């Protein structure tokens, strides 16, 4: 559920605002209403933060190199690791740019061979003008009458030296300042210096902890300085007396959960602050704080990764999101073997972290692995192995309506299983999207809720229409099929009349007439949203095909003693890759059905931002 918020304003004496901010941070309940502010302190701390983050990035690169070379770090005793690391980084950047520039110059001169560029100037002082050119074959033929010394020819160019002066209409070849041998020596020096710099940077790896601690302190100072800059002054008197500077006050506004308002009130009374609390106005940008039970909180790792938060005035769909996401996960992976691996990995991680308290991600892994295992058992899918080759008890515990055993029995059986799976996808769409409209109806306590009822009717009608389009004769005699057309029509009428209701039915109908194109497109959206759930079957089918292909490629190898090891590697690599692809498919398709199709029907735009109180939280997050 979304926790109700109070908007509060605190007024403190201007001379006490620093101590007030320290006390507020200790309370840790006020989400400050941020404004666009700037100060010298913010600029300075932002620059320091960027420097520290750049230093950490350089150390991470050095850490990867040290791991490859299996080097072990010592200890760091310097005073300013950030400055030392950044100085090395800047030196490395200059060295790399120099090496790159020398490499380009060497490639340009390589065809001319090793010569001293200064020799051309020396000869010119002695009255011998030699001008090098790199001509096209056509340009060389045009200049055949000129005194030229041909040095080399290839398919695309002719390298010559003009004796006595420049050629008309041609640009001389720039000989540069260094010979090839000079460039090679400079490249060797640059690479040696770069290697030494890399080694020195790896020697600074023990300073990583100090740099991270510096970054944490900067983040803390930056948040404090930002809050300080956001505090605005209020004049205590219209006409300022002589001691005006000591009689001005500052104020800051923000949001506090209703359940935490008492904490802030006690703090205000203790420190002598003036406090005003009220409900947020419709124009306020209110943060969202979700308070879910143990089941719905399992979704937190996913929503944190996706960085999606419902708006304060929107509905919280966390329990439904998690429930249907588990179903989508199982259907997209679609293999009990993969599910068993994920489930066991989750169980092992729970056991290993039991003493410290298992992370939520481990619990989510167990739940998702079980969902995948259950769906694979029902469909008789185990590592892409043909269902008829599996042990008999695995075949018997599968569900005949969707089992691969039924599909392998005959072409008709295969067709019926495919249609059953598609019908299940569409049924899932009807239930899922209808729940979205029910949530919107509960939240919208006006006649506009009737439009939600109409949308549910349109969904139900479209559901039967879609099934009639894809089902064979065995499924065409579905009860209420003709009645569904009337249900759809009734839903359209309700949506047309109340879809834009804002206190007047007549105005709502006029709006629908004006936006008739959008109303009609809404029908197409309902059809496309229901059809969108077919991706669960299609993506799962693709994963099963990949698993089967891997087995067919590795099977012949496993039958030979010499090639058995190669076949095992192929199986592990192939199925491992398939698992990775399935994870990506879940993130793309499983998440999409919740955050797009379902959220659209629930009226959810994910336009919110998380409640982040002014506290020591910055340090904890940095850790």
Between the first and last Cα atoms, what is the distance in angstroms?
Answer: 28 Å
**Oligomeric state, counting identical vs distinct chains:** single chain
Strand content: 5-15%
Question: C-alpha Rg, in Å?
Answer: 36 Å
The description of the largest β-sheet is:
5 strands, antiparallel
Tally of DSSP helical segments: 23
Global geometry: extended
Helix content percent band: 55-70%
Number of domains: 3
Mean pLDDT: 85
What class would the helix/strand composition place it in?
alpha+beta
Low-pLDDT ranges: 235-245
Strand tally, please?
Answer: 8
Structure, briefly:
By secondary structure, the protein is an alpha+beta fold. The protein has helices spanning 17-27, 40-69, 81-109, 118-125, 137-142, 180-203, 208-230, 261-271, 300-306, 318-333, 336-352, 360-379, 392-396, 404-409, 411-443, 449-470, 473-476, 481-498, 505-514, 516-532, 535-558, 564-602, 617-622, and strands spanning 5-13, 31-32, 130-135, 148-153, 158-163, 232-234, 249-257, 274-278. It is extended and about 105 Å long.
What does this 3D model show about the protein?
- It contains 23 helices and eight strands.
- By secondary structure, it is of the alpha+beta class.
- It has three domains: 5-67 and 212-278, no CATH class; 118-175, no CATH class; 296-602, no CATH class.
- Mean pLDDT is 85; it is low at 235-245.
């Amino acid at each position: 559920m979304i926790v109700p918020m109070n908007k509060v304003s605190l007024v403190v004496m201007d001379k006490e605002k620093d101590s007030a901010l320290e006390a507020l941070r200790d309370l840790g309940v006020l989400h400050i209403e941020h404004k666009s502010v700037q100060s010298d302190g913010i600029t300075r701390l932002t620059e320091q933060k960027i420097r520290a983050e750049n230093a950490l990035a350089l150390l991470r690169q050095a850490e990867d190199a040290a791991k490859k070379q299996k080097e072990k770090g010592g200890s760091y005793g310097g005073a300013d690791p950030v400055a030392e690391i950044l100085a090395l980084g800047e030196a490395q950047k200059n060295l790399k740019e120099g090496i790159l520039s020398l490499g380009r110059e060497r490639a340009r001169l390589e065809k001319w061979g090793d010569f001293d560029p200064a020799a051309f100037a020396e000869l010119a002082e002695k009255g011998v003008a030699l001008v090098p050119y790199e001509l096209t074959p056509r340009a060389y033929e045009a200049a055949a009458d000129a005194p030229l010394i041909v040095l080399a020819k290839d398919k695309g160019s002719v390298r010559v030296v003009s004796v006595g002066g420049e050629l008309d209409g041609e640009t001389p070849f720039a000989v540069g300042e260094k010979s090839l041998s000079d460039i090679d020596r400079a490249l060797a020096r640059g690479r040696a210096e770069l290697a030494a710099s890399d080694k020195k940077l790896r020697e600074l790896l023990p300073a990583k902890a100090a740099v991270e601690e510096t970054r944490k302190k900067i983040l803390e100072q930056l948040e404090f300085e930002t809050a300080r800059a956001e505090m605005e002054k209020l004049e205590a008197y219209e006409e300022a007396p002589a001691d005006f500077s000591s009689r001005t006050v500052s104020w800051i506004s923000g949001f506090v959960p209703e359940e935490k308002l008492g904490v802030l009130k006690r703090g205000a009374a203790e420190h002598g602050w003036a406090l005003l609390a009220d409900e947020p106005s419709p124009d306020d940008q209110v943060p969202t704080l979700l308070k879910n039970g143990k089941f719905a909180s399992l979704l937190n790792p996913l929503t944190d990764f996706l960085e999606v938060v419902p708006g304060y005035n929107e509905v919280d769909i966390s329990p439904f999101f998690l429930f249907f996401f588990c179903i989508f996960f199982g259907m997209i992976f679609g293999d009990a073997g993969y599910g068993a691996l994920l489930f066991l990995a989750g169980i092992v991680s729970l056991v290993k972290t039991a003493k410290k308290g298992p992370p939520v991600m481990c619990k989510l892994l167990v739940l998702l692995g079980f969902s995948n295992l259950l769906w694979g058992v029902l469909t008789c899918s185990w590592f892409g192995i043909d269902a008829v080759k599996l042990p008999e008890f695995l075949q018997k515990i599968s569900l005949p309506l969707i089992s691969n055993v039924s599909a392998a029995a005959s072409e008709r059986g295969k067709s019926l299983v495919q249609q059953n799976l598609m019908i299940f996808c569409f049924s899932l769409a009807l239930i899922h999207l209808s729940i979205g409209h029910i949530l919107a109806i509960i939240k919208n306590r006006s006649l506009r809720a009737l439009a939600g009822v109409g949308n549910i009717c349109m969904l139900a009608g479209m559901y039967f229409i879609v099934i009639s389009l894809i089902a064979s004769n065995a499924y065409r005699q579905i009860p209420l099929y003709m009645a569904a057309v009337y249900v759809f029509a009734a839903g359209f009428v309700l949506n047309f009349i109340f879809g834009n209701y804002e206190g007047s039915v007549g105005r709502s109908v006029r709006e629908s007439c004006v936006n008739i194109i959008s109303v009609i497109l809404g029908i197409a959206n309902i059809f496309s949203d229901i059809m969108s759930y077919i991706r669960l079957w299609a993506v799962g089918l693709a994963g099963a095909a990949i698993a089967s292909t891997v087995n067919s490629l590795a099977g012949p190898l496993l039958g030979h003693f010499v090639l058995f090891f190669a076949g095992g590697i192929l199986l592990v690599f192939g199925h491992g890759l398939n698992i990775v692809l399935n994870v990506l498919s879940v993130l793309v398709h499983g998440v999409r059905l919740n955050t797009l199709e379902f959220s659209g029907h629930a009226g959810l735009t994910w336009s919110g931002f998380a409640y982040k109180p002014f506290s020591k939280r910055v340090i904890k997050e940095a850790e």
